[in-house]
Amino acid sequence: MRKIIAGFMSMTMLVLFTPQGIAQKKEMTWTTKSKEARELAKSGAHHMMNAEFEQAYSDVDAALKLDPNLTPALVLMANLSRGASREAYAERAMKSAAGKTEGEKLFASLADKNTTAEMRGETWTKLHTMFPEGRMIGDFYVQTRATPEERFAAAEDYIKTFPDEPAMYNTIAYYYILNKKDNDMAKKNLDKYIALYPDGTNPYDSMGEYYLNTGDKENSKKYYNIALEKYPFNNSSITALQKMADEKKSADSK
Fold first, then answer.
1. What are phi and psi for residue 26, nearest 5 degrees?
2. Angstrom distance (rounded) from CA 249 to CA 254
3. By the 8 A CB rule, do 116 and 14 touch?
4. Does the CA dihedral 115-117-121-127 come out positive or negative?
5. Do 206 and 173 touch, CB atoms closer than 8 A?
6. What is the pLDDT of residue 7?
7. How many alpha carbons fall within 13 Å on the CB side of residue 119?
8. N or C: which end of the chain has fewer CB within 10 A?
9. What sign results for the dihedral spanned by CA atoms 198, 204, 206, 210?
10. What Cα–Cα distance (Å) separates residue 78 from each residue in 72, 107, 136, 177, 199?
11. Which residue blocks in the chain are alpha helix, DSSP H?
């Protein structure tokens, strides 16, 4: 699945988690007394990087049950929610940042409903400059560049820094599909995505979409079904398979 830019975050929300008290000069620190909450939030953010939103919601919700004042998790949950729930989580996120680190305060400011897309892009640039070793902050910086060309250039820089980070190969693959119209390079990057994240759901969902777009429905079904073997509640794969089934049924009835 392509990561969709949406909401006040402009896309899947990203943050790098560093245990408080451990010196990390180029990564954002955050504040929590619960190691388990930190790990759950970290897992949720990882799923968000990979457009695995159902798993992300489950992990972040569990993190907030352990630490209701965990700023990054509140921002994550706001981005995963809609309507009044989103507004409530956003308000909690901004309040929770009081007295915390400057990075957390800047991070929480992304939840302010009054910020524009341009302002959010500037905020991600500041966070990326402050924390250049933050993998997830770097990922979100890539996604919020203004043009496809800028995103692709930033993605290439990201890969040079973090060649083993799976999610960025998905981003690059969709650039080749949507902008370059280069299916060979798209397939190469999706193969790399699967190799680096074989237990994930989204690598197979993305490959399913790739084959669907190239007209190979049999391989498309194969990969969508693998995605569901990894996580049976992946809405993207469920929807795609149902649509293909409905189309076949309609064609057969004619």
1. -115, 20
2. 9
3. no
4. positive
5. yes
6. 45
7. 11
8. C
9. positive
10. 10, 13, 17, 30, 27
11. 35-49, 53-66, 71-80, 83-96, 102-109, 117-130, 135-143, 148-161, 167-175, 183-196, 202-213, 217-230, 235-252
DSSP states along 76-136 = HHHHH--HHHHHHHHHHHHHHTTTS-HHHHHHHHTT-TT--HHHHHHHHHHHHHH-TT-HH
Phi, psi of 87 (to 5 degrees): -60, -40
Residue in the block written with tokens 């400059």: 129
The Cβ of residue 126 has, within 10 Å, a number of other Cβ atoms equal to 14
Q: How far apart are CA 4 and CA 66, in angstroms?
A: 29
Which residue carries 């795609």 as its tokens? 240
Encoded amino acid at 50, one letter: N
What tokens does 129 get? 């400059």
129 within 8 A of 152, measured Cβ to Cβ: no
- Copy the structure tokens of residue 148: 């496809």
Taking only the tens of pLDDT, the chain with its 254 residues reads 876 544 445 443 333 344 444 444 587 877 999 999 999 998 999 999 999 999 999 999 999 999 999 999 999 999 999 999 999 999 999 999 999 999 999 999 999 888 888 899 999 999 999 999 988 899 989 999 999 999 999 999 999 999 999 999 999 999 999 999 999 999 999 999 999 999 999 999 999 999 999 999 999 999 999 999 999 999 999 999 999 999 988 888 87
DSSP code of 231? Answer: -
pLDDT of residue 27: 79
